Structures are given as C-alpha cells and as structure tokens.
Amino acid sequence: MIILLRMAMRKRRSEWTLQDETELLENWESRSNDLRKAKRNAHIYQEISMEMGRRYTAEEIHCKVKNLTKKYREEKSKIDPFGGSPSVWKHYQAVHRIMGTTAVNSALYMKTDSLMSIRKQRSEWTLPDEIELLEKWEARSHDLRKAKRNAHIYREIAMEMGRRYTAEEVHCKVKNLTKKYREEKSKIDPSGGSPSVWKHYQAVQRIIGSTAVNSALYVKTDSLYSPTSSMPSPSSPFPSPQLPSPSPPLPSPSSSSASMQSPTARKRNYNGEMVKLIKQQTQILKTIAEESKLVNQEMIGAILEQNRITEKLSTLMEKISEKLGF
After folding, report:
1. pLDDT band at 288; cut points 50, 70, 90
2. Which helix (H) or strand (E) segment is 319 a member of?
3. Which of 85, 42, 241 lies closest to 233 in space, CA to CA?
4. How many Å apart are CA 81 and CA 78, to the nearest integer?
5. Where are the domains of the chain?
6. In the predicted structure, residue 101 carries a pLDDT above the cut 70
7. 212 pLDDT exceeds 70?
8. Would the pLDDT of 99 be above 60?
C-alpha cells in the first residue's frame, strides 16, 4: 500500500511544467561539462535537484534529461543535412546548445574546454570584485530572503557586475562568504572577546543581520546602542553598529544644550525616548512574528538578548535619573 502511494505521488509530481523544463535546461547547460567529464554523475543530478528546490528527485531529473536528449535526436534526424525546415520543437535550440558540448562534435569540445579554462581564470575573485559583490548582495538581501527561487536574482547580480562572473560563481561566492562569516562568528566569545580580523566580517554581518534570522532585531540593536555609545557594554555580543539609527540619539546629560534644560524637561525627554523605544521594540517583534513562522533557537536567543538589553537600558536610565536628582 505504501509503495503504491509513493508511486502515485511520484506520478503526480513528475508532470513537468514548461517553467520547470526551462529551469532544468538552464541547470543542465551550466553543468553539462561536469556531466560530460564525470564517470559517476549521480551526485550532479542530486545537486540539480537541490537547486530546483527538490521538486523533482535526482532520478526524475536524470530521466527527463534522457527524454529531452532522445527527443532532440529524433528532431535532428528529421532535418535535411543540406538544408530544410528547422525543428518546431520548443526546446530544440536549448538542447542543441547543450548537445554541442557533448560527444557529438569534438571540435566543440575544444571550444568548450577553452571557455572553461577562461572561466577558471576568471573565477579568481579580486578584493574590488568582492567588495562590489558585497554591495550588490546587501542591496538585494531582502529579495533573496523572500524569494523561494532566487536563481534569477544571482543572474541579475552577475549582469550588474558586467558578467565577469556567472550566476553560479556569484552564488558559490555568497555561500563561501556566509560560511566564512559563521566560522569567524563562532570564534568570538559571546561574553566578550577579540573581534574578528577578517576584512569582510562587518560587511557580511550587516547582510546576515538583514536576512531570515532576525533582520529587525539587528536594526533595533543599533538604535538601542546609539544613546549609550560612550559607555559600551563589555558583555554585549553585538558589534559596533554601522547602520543609521532609526531613532534620534538621546541627549547626553553632559552636553551644553541639556544643561540649559530644567530637570523636569530632561526627565520628560528621557521618558518620551523610552516610550518610543518600547513602541519600536513592540513593532519589531510584531513584524518578526508576521514575517517568520519558523522560530528557531537563534531567534529565541536574539529575543532574549533584546530583552536583556532593554532591561540594561532601563537600569541605565534609572541611574542617570538618580544622578540628575529626578
């Protein structure tokens, strides 16, 4: 019974749409050289399956590739070698480009190999290119977080960078930067320690802070730190903020403008700022609850840290009020 259900589910799932076929052709074309050279290519079809969101299994993708290849050869056999009507099959040109890199034509092999050698040389990322990618990545981080299929976003980034790198190379570089950031972050003592010396740590920190984990909390943390920048907390795990604060900084009690205000006015200003911060925190938590249904352990820890910072800020405000004689 279970086997029959699995077969039925597979039959329903194996109905390929035109959009899925087009996406498969793009992934197949980008991996055609790997498929040609690999003696065992099951892992490549598994990777293509992952890139397509696992909507199809590796076996289904392999079967679809074979069917497309068979259909292409049938259509090609119908064409008169001395000139005739071209094939009207919608995928003929796409498969023809892919089959042009396989064993059909050895001359095209040499061209493909030369293109691959150029790509290998081009895939060495320079520091200016890395900085440019970080800027593009940060600008599109919101789109990448919300998109279920983001291959087109990496293609757009590749185009914006002048096609010096392919969409696959851009995607791979983003994954490598994310992995490096997490490794560096894991080395930092949460109770306070030496900051990372990796040159891209702060930039990736800003981007990761705007993704699915807790984007609003990172902005909120920056706003909470702005009024107390002259008194940093050694136990805080957050880095120095680089994003602009969403709320104006609280007036310093040592400033000349604050000294001209009466104690009642200063207390009113502090209370007003506290109310604003609490309202912003509430709105941020509501936004997180609406946007993310998958609450993981990291989200919970960030919320607890947020509450801890709020408590510390409240305690700090009380101490300031006591010193000012409120």
Report:
1. confident
2. helix 297-324
3. 241
4. 9
5. 2-122, 127-187, 212-324
6. no
7. no
8. yes
